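Troubleshooting entry. The earlier prediction with IPE gave an output that would not parse, so I re-checked the input for stray whitespace and re-submitted. Clean input:
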Amino acid sequence: MSKVLDINSLLLEVRNAVQIYIDLLLISKDDDDRLKKAIKYSSTNIGKAMRAFLVIESSKMFGVDTAKSMPIAASVELIHTYSLIHDDLPAMDNDSIRRGKPTCHKMYGEAAAILAGDSLLTLAFELLSSELIDFSSNTKLTVINTLAKAIGMNGMAGGQMLDILFEGQELAVENIMEMQKKKTAYFIAACCKIGGILGNVDKQSLSYLENYGMALGTAFQITDDILDIEGCEIKAGKKLRKDYAAGKATLVDKVGLNDSKIKAQELIDLALEEIKNLQCDYSNLSNFAYFIALRNLH
Ligand code: IPE
Ligand code: IPE
Ligand code: MG
Ligand code: MG
Ligand code: MG
């Protein structure tokens, strides 16, 4: 339990530092137009910042300074915020509350929310390709390529499409798992792999990091779906108990709460097995896996 408390405070510390970085990044952007207001509204209220945490911690264990990984950590949170703004749109999940506040489109309208999402995604790649990234051009390119592959049509966007297409359908467990990997796990795995890329580690270590991230990311989506049933709305900062009515194809719907918890725990155990192969102090990543398991499952 104390491991989880430690990781909670470290996560909060990372979250606050990333929030400051993003706030500074957006400070010069004038506030008077609707698009910029919508962008600021959503990105000055980041969530848990777990993707940023994974970038920072998975590179720190290979000796990379937080100051150097910070702009990359901020970029992944900008991308994540874009994905949530679009996920909440009426054409997607039609949600009215995100991170404890009205969703972007509820505040600024659908057009501004779509464009705020587009702009945040673009801003992330502007930042990733800028001189603020203090790594070799080759490392920069590898980071950009890794992220782009994880969030596009064969990754997050593709998974989000499946999520919508699967609504109301009777599916095999394998189809549901594939959708969850695409919409959530590939991006999380990319954040972990980026740590290794920044740390200049060998191919084998990169694949341990990626496998850890895939297992953790899939477990994370399963627990998000469990939270939709069992969670507390105030803590989650979003409306819950919506997936069933929307006909979402979740593992919980398919196999029930108990078996979903077992599956999530198995994936957490798998993530822990993978990370153990690394030749460094991986304790923050293993404690983070315990944190994800405990967050929802107990
Ligand atoms: C929510 O992600 C979307 C999912 C992939 C389940 P998070 O739970 O990481 O959202 P924030 O950033 O903390 O708000
Ligand atoms: C969203 O999954 C996954 C994304 C890629 C954004 P959900 O639709 O379950 O996330 P919440 O519950 O709205 O945060
Ligand atoms: Mg969704
Ligand atoms: Mg949603
Ligand atoms: Mg959800």
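This one parsed fine. Strands lie at 97-98, 101-102.
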